[in-house]
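input
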Amino acid sequence: MSERPRSITAVLPAYNEAAVIASTARRVDGVLRRSGAVEWEIIVVDDGSHDGTGDTVRALASELPEMRVVAHPVNRGYGAALRSGFGAARSEAIWLLDSDGQFDPADLALLLPHYGHDAVVAGHRVSRSDPLGRRLSNRAFFALVRLSVGRLAADINCGFKLFPRAVGVGLTADGAMVSTELLLRAHRAGYRIVDVPVSHHPRTSGVATGTHPRVVLRAFGELARVRRMATPMAPPEVR
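output
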């Protein structure tokens, strides 16, 4: 049964997103104000950016009182950024939203009706707006993921999800496998995983790092570890 969360923390991982992070954070703030949540906050995790992202979000935090900044002195990876943000969250629900401007924050309205204390609501990019090479490499890698851990969601790696905070606490992956780990441990604990189609737009600035050889190698290493060692968690509370 769906139930709107009383409090929501938006977690935005950011690595060299100075051109779009302020616009994204302001849009997120506006969406949260209209979401019906009693309390909300925005956590931007600056993952060792060197393009001025940190200065931009620190200045913006003085404008948006519900916004906090978590900073990594060096780049630690997408998963590490999410883990820092999830660990700092104070709300009942976490809204994961990539900060590169490819998702529309207004699509939170599509996820909210499916939220529950026992559910992970996972965005599904129906029409993915990435270059062909990135889409093909992503499809091939996550076909391997499905063979390894089974089908967890229609779009495992989509950076647009809404879930109870407990699901995000205690993850271990530092790289791209963090979403797989999150869904796998939620599935094993008995949480429902609900797929919801969301819009996806072309990147207008910055550089995607998902196909960088270092990122890919880390993902292969993490896949084997996540499959064996997804951190156990308690089942959803019975209500």
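quick obs: Residues 7-229 form a domain with the Spore Coat Polysaccharide Biosynthesis Protein SpsA; Chain A fold (CATH 3.90.550.10).
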